[in-house]
Amino acid sequence: xxxxxxxxxxxxxxxxxxxxxxxxxxxxxxxxxxxxxxxxxxxxxxxxxxxxxxxxxxxxxxxxxxxxxxxxxxxxxxxxxxxxxxxxxxxxxxxxxxxxxxxxxxxxxxxxxxxxxxxxxxxxxxxxxxxxxxxxxxxxxxxxxxxxxxxxxxxxxxxxxxxxxxxxxxxxxxxxxxxxxxxxxxx
Length: 187
Known about the structure:
The protein is mostly beta strands. It has one helix spanning about 125-135; strands spanning about 5-10, 10-15, 20-25, 35-40, 45-50, 55-65, 105-125, 135-140, 140, 145-150, 155-160, 165-170.
């Protein structure tokens, strides 16, 4: 899939790196290969901890910026007197740039991180290897359609060539609405 640019119904997406999906080392702090997500035939999902060691995760990646020319975020705080009927100030976003922003729409994705050609090499014990073959994910990595290879000496390889999103880069929104509806009763 060429990921140099794509026209979306909501704007455009462009790849930051002009050479799409180059093989690079990328530190992904939350990819730790510590749990499998299993789905049974009845659709029940369960986490299984991974007891393996010597995990090496590789992939090609790119960062895609999302451009929404129709969205002018400054309109949200251009006038400090507007409100939404029936809503308190900060209902959608409190304007805080932290996890404490408990609005209904505190942030908006501005980029996404795509990977492909996922390769996981590890020393799995027998139980972990069976769980891997039945798993849909290893932490946040999709391995539902992956190929599983036993390399001998208790070494195993999981390969998934497809494109997948592993992360979003979001931007906090300013406080909106900036005022409470004057017709709201005090709490």
